[in-house]
Amino acid sequence: MQKVLFVTGKKAYPVLKKQLDKTEKHDETHLHKLPIEVAAFTTPELISREIDTERYNWIVVSGMSPHDYTDMENVVKGPRNAYDTTELDLHKLDQLSPKKPADQVIDIGGIDKEKLKNAIDRTKPTTTIRGIPVGGDTPIKIISEIVDATKLDKQQLAREARRRMEEGADIIDIGVHHNATPNKIKETIETTRKIGPTSIDTMNPEHIETAINTDVDLILSLNTKLLEQLKNKIEGENIVVLGSHDPSQIHRDIKKARSYGANPIADPILDPPGHGLTESLNRYRLFREKDRETPLLMGVGNATELIDTDSHGVNAILTTLASELQVNLLLTTEASLKTQGSTAELKKASMMAFTAKIRDTTPKDLGIDLIKHKDKKRKEFKPQKASNTIEPDENELKQEKPSGGCYEVGVDREENKIYTTHYNCETKKPTQTVIGTNSTTIINYITQKQEITPSHAAYLSKELYKAQIALKTGKNYIQDTPLYKIEE
């Protein structure tokens, strides 16, 4: 039986003890409190002095320790946060490093990617779209629509299509502007098909014919009338058949589509929140009860675009509902600021739903999540309180005037960079702009190269970090304005 010793400082000791009590005791685990307040102060010399290292198979020090323990054969680093100790597999401590924290070496709290891949490999699709397995028990696939894609030039379109694919899209959907010419549609499809499987979203029969002649991979969306108009054109094509107010019509249209040689996908149509959403979900349920084979598509953008709330929660619950309803494809737009990032959110939600299904559990504690603005567990450490405590009153503090100039902070979304422009406070003329992506690098440069008071540097640090967060989250950055609405 392996003997494992965890060592920590006085501050983290009660937390680590509590976490170790939660772990499975297959091995003989022990905990030692070092004569230091903070575990980050652990050193190899301290371990050698305090611990008989030969008594243990493994000694796990805090991941916050900056030192290299390579010379101590059985010492490795645990996670930086003591609360994450429960994520360690005590049988696999040999995977940890004497140099790097555990959370930089192994996927703390992460999903087992190899097991997930093996599970996906075992699934059986009912069809494929340019090599993409669809239907059956495969994970839900994501179609990401570029709205008015035909209005973009080649470079803009290619850049946006690559971003969508990188964020998890399985298929790029071309939103066709009503004034688009056949040549522009052809050019648009040819551009995106070089990047990934492509669908077209139009109800103009001429546009659809152009797309078919350009080898589009999927056609969205054909109603009863269009199906009849194009019956001689769709042999061998992947098409989405739209539902109607008559629930039985979609089944008749699917039968017709197959008789024309097409490969149909059903879309009973998801209605917006407050305008039939519940009943439309029921249409999906009724369809799947009657037809177990035909792949189902759900346009979740109809919901996310038409409710003013953060998209990731809406996408998570809709994907879970789609999984229960055995929907196989989700169509999303990113037409508004609030829905940007929906492609990545749906991809992650799809993996959550698939993992939960194969584990026969709820989409919780999977090692993958869509929690963005809150946390599941409290992992904070309260600083030690000194005997001398001060609670400053802002009204009593001297207000310093900016020295050395004024600064304007902003962001450039195209370059994804922070701009910090220095002005002469009297003439209001710009003298220098510091550009970067890391707020710490920018403020370090300014404090080292330019004259600035401590209070002005503190203010600028806060604004630069706000700008950095805004770039990552998509929030608007406006200097001197809070990023988030905080209710009083």
Overall residue-averaged pLDDT value: 93
Low-pLDDT ranges: none
Under the CATH scheme, which architecture of the largest domain would be assigned?
Alpha-Beta Barrel
Q: What is the first-to-last residue Cα distance?
A: 55 Å
Number of helices: 15
SS elements, strand count: 17
Helix fraction, binned, reads: 25-40%
CATH topology of the largest domain: TIM Barrel
Instruction: Give the CATH superfamily of the largest domain.
Output: Dihydropteroate synthase-like
Beta content: 15-25%
Assembly type: single chain
Structure description:
This protein has 488 residues and is an alpha/beta fold. The chain folds into three domains: 3-105; 123-359, TIM Barrel; 398-473, no CATH class. 33% of the residues lie in helices and 17% in strands. It has helices at 13-22, 44-50, 102-105, 113-121, 154-166, 182-193, 205-213, 224-229, 249-259, 277-290, 301-304, 311-324, 342-359, 439-449, 454-473; strands at residues 3-8, 28-33, 58-61, 75-77, 127-129, 132-134, 141-146, 171-175, 198-201, 218-222, 238-242, 263-267, 297-299, 329-333, 406-412, 417-423, 430-436. β16 and β17 form a beta hairpin. It is globular, with a radius of gyration of 29 Å. The mean pLDDT is 93.
Write a brief structural summary:
With 488 residues, this protein is an alpha/beta fold. The chain is built from 15 helices and 17 strands. It has helices spanning 13-22, 44-50, 102-105, 113-121, 154-166, 182-193, 205-213, 224-229, 249-259, 277-290, 301-304, 311-324, 342-359, 439-449, 454-473, and strands at residues 3-8, 28-33, 58-61, 75-77, 127-129, 132-134, 141-146, 171-175, 198-201, 218-222, 238-242, 263-267, 297-299, 329-333, 406-412, 417-423, 430-436.
